[in-house]
Every structure is written in structure tokens, then in C-alpha cells.
TrEMBL record:
Pfam families noted in UniProt: Mannitol_dh, Mannitol_dh_C
All copies of domain Mannitol dehydrogenase N-terminal, residue ranges: 34-282
Native source organism of the sequence: Oceaniovalibus guishaninsula JLT2003
Lineage: Bacteria, Pseudomonadati, Pseudomonadota, Alphaproteobacteria, Rhodobacterales
Organism superkingdom: Bacteria
Entry keyword Oxidoreductase: yes
MF-aspect GO terms: oxidoreductase activity, acting on the CH-OH group of donors, NAD or NADP as acceptor
Every Mannitol dehydrogenase C-terminal domain range: 291-480
PANTHER family (alphabetical): MANNITOL DEHYDROGENASE 2-RELATED (PTHR43362:SF1), MANNITOL DEHYDROGENASE DSF1-RELATED (PTHR43362)
UniProt cross-references to InterPro entries, sorted A to Z: 6-PGluconate_DH-like_C_sf, 6PGD_dom2, Mannitol_DH, Mannitol_DH/Oxidoreductase, Mannitol_DH_C, Mannitol_DH_N, NAD(P)-bd_dom_sf
Designated name of the protein: Mannitol dehydrogenase
Amino acid sequence: MDELTLAPLSNATLARLPDGVLRPRYDRAAIGPGIVHVGVGNFHRAHQAWYLHRLMQDGKALDWGIVGGGVRAADAGMRARLAAQDNLTTLIQLDPDEGRVEVTGSMIAFAEVAETGHAPLVAAMADPRIRIVSLTVTEGGYYRDAGGALNADHPDIRHDAAHLDTPRTAFGAMIAALRRRRAAGDAGFTCLSCDNLQGNGDVLQGAVLGLARMQDPALADWIAANTAFPNSMVDCIVPATGPRERAMAAAAGIDDAAPVTHERFRQWVIEDRFPTGRPEWEAAGATLADDVHAYETMKIRLLNAGHQILANAGELLSLDSIADCMAHRDVAALLRTVLSREVAPHVAPVPGRTPQQYLDLISGRFANPLIHDTVRRVAFDGTARHATFVLPTIRDALAAGAPLDGLALTEALWARMCAGTREDGTAIEPNDPHWDARHRNAEAARTHPQIWLAQDEVYGDLADAPRFEQSFSRWLRTIWCDGSAAAIRGYLEAPA
């Protein structure tokens, strides 16, 4: 279809979309707000917003419309793009056996993104019709120290502790809204993290209550008594959007400024603790559980850690996408060997799936040739992702006296990547919020590997674990002397 003939996506143009494009069957004007979601990126729109859209397609959850929100400058651009198309999103399912294009409409508004103070976001969350505030602010967005607790010394946290009505963080905004609700005699809301963190609800509770106690201990007590922080596990591979993805939407007959591509697989496991109510997510395929810990562990330790294994090696070897990594014999073998030999033994099964079955599942998902998930996107913020996804298994392996050479190699590949050049000599652009420190220490670790492990904010006490330190140092020296490919082959050829 000629892109010039396409009308911009909007409520008014829904009826004119081509046959075969799925679209809302519900009256969007009849939807009331029930959820504020902070961090409206591609993942949220392909995952949580889709589950709600599916309920609405069946005439359910029409009082649970999503109001978007953000606390970063970049969120203002997303708000502008979505507002121009009535907050509609085109989802393009990339699957060799079942492609699909669907326009979703569960988001009904997006609070204005303020440069300071986040007053519109606070007002949106203070609305008593809002019963859930959910977040996808990335693993690095929770202001945790090396031990996983709230970093009370971070400048943003110190600011929010002293400036109750002009917060910088999402957590400060949530507390400001809850303060208003308490003053008005309204109920609290459920706080739902949808980020890839072990015990993400517990982490969110620590951030909100920790900051609230710094401000007002009595308010913190009220929040603890009048809110809930359920844990959840989320899973769907959702690449970033660029010209390629916008062209896909145009080819389907849709002029969407912010379409989302995604795989067919979705999973959402949620601890069922919602004192102010919730949508009937299980009717759309979510799993409500009393305990999501085993699901979280399986996904974080295998899929998310596996992504880091692939992305760091792939970046150094000039492989563009995760599918390209899976097409590379040695990189794909590295993934399967490290996960099966060194990670899966520390992962418990979940109902209906063993760790080995999950490894088979994610291997197929990673290899999907239609999903252009770049190694750069997956490798972003290694500081948070390695600490969250990889290092816990290293600690388990040390405690159990279990193998960890492949995990040490994974960390050495990350250290080499942060030196900022690929093996072909091309530059790796900064790709971490803490890039300056990572790059500086990666350069120094070329001759003194222990310098990399001495980064306390990442490794903590692991720097003092001789077995890990010796393996890491050996692999990093091998990488610098012989290259990443040789180090990977050396690991694969070593006796188990």
C-alpha cells in the first residue's frame, strides 16, 4: 500500500483500516480510568496493555482503562506520538507460523510529562478511580545499592526526601499521590512492578516505603497498611521501534508513529494481592498465583541471563541481532552450555515446565528470524542487568561448589565489551548509564583484571571470591590475547 495514501491512526480512521487488521470492538469513549502505568515503552504496550485490551474485546474491564505516565524527558516524546493517534497502538506479531496485526485501545490517556515536579502524574495517581499504579522503569530504575536495598544516598532519592511536592522519581510521585489520597480520605492503590527483578514487588515496596520513611514515618505506616505490592513475572520479546518497524505498519495499511513488533509468546504470572480490586487478567491468559518466585527465577536466570550471554558476545563479534547470535554456531553453543551446565541446576521447575524444557523454549524464541532484536538493545545497562540476572547464579554456584567458568566468561565478555571496541576494530557507542566508569575500568582491567571486579557497586563481595576471580581473570586475559571467539571455543572444548 502506498504510504502517502494512509491516514494517520486515530479513532476516526479505525473503521477504514484494511481487512485483516484486528481492531477494538469496544466503545473507547465508554472506558473509565483504573490504572496509571509509569514507563510507557514498547514492552508495556505489547504485554500488560494487550492483556487488558483482550479483556475489553470481550466486554470486560471497561473501568480499568490505562493512563500513561513518565518521569523521564524521553517520555514526553512518546506521549506526543501517542496523543496524536488517540493513544492507539499497532501491534505486529512476528511469527513464522502466525503473523498478525492488531490495533489496541486500552490506553485512554497519557498524563503530561512535566520537566520538574511531575504534578500531572501525581494528580493522575491521586484520582480515587485509580486502583492500580504499575511500572516498567527497567531494572536500573529502582535506585538499589549493591546489596539490593534502596540507595538512600542517591541524589534523586535525597531530593525526593527533602522535596515532598516536587519529586524527581516515580516513587516520590507515588508517595505524593498517596499523601493526597490519605488527606482526602480515599483508599490507597495497589503498586505493581512489571520489571525483570527477582521479587519485583518486594523491591518496589522497599523503594516506596523506604523513601516514605525518609519523608514522614506516619505516612509510611499508612502506605504499608493501605496498599499492596504484589510480585509478578513478565515475559515477551519486544524489539525497539525504528524505521523498519514503522515501514511494517505502513505495509499493513497503518500510519502509526509508534508501532510495536513482538513475538507470539507471552507470559504474565501475578501474585494475587490486590486489595483495591483488579481486572480479570486470568481470562486473558495470565496466571494468578500465591507465589511467583519459581517463575521469576526460571525466567530471570535463564532467559534474561541468556540474553546477556548472547548480546555481549554478539556485540564483540559484530553480530547485529539476537537471531544472528543464535545462527552463529559457537555463540549459540555458549548459550546452551552455560545455561544447561551452570544455571539450570540452580533453578527449580514450575508447574508444567522443567528448566531444560524452558531452555529449549527460549532457544527457539531467540532464533526467530523475524524478530530483529538488536544486541545493542539487549546489552543496554549491563550494570543493572548483570547484577540482576547473572551474579545471583554465580553466588549460588560459589555456595554450592558448582561450576561457574562459563558465568565468569560471561562477565569477562561484558568487561571486554565495555572497552568500547569490537574485535573488527569498530567502535561500540556508550550503552550504559554508568558507561564512563565501566569504560575506564574495562581499559584498566586489560592488564589488571581485578580492577573490573573491584567495582563494588556491581560485584560487592564477589571480588573476594578466589574461584570466581581466578576464572574471570583467566578468561579476560585470554580474550585480550587471543580474541573472544577463541575464548568461547576454549570454554566449549574444555572438559565438563
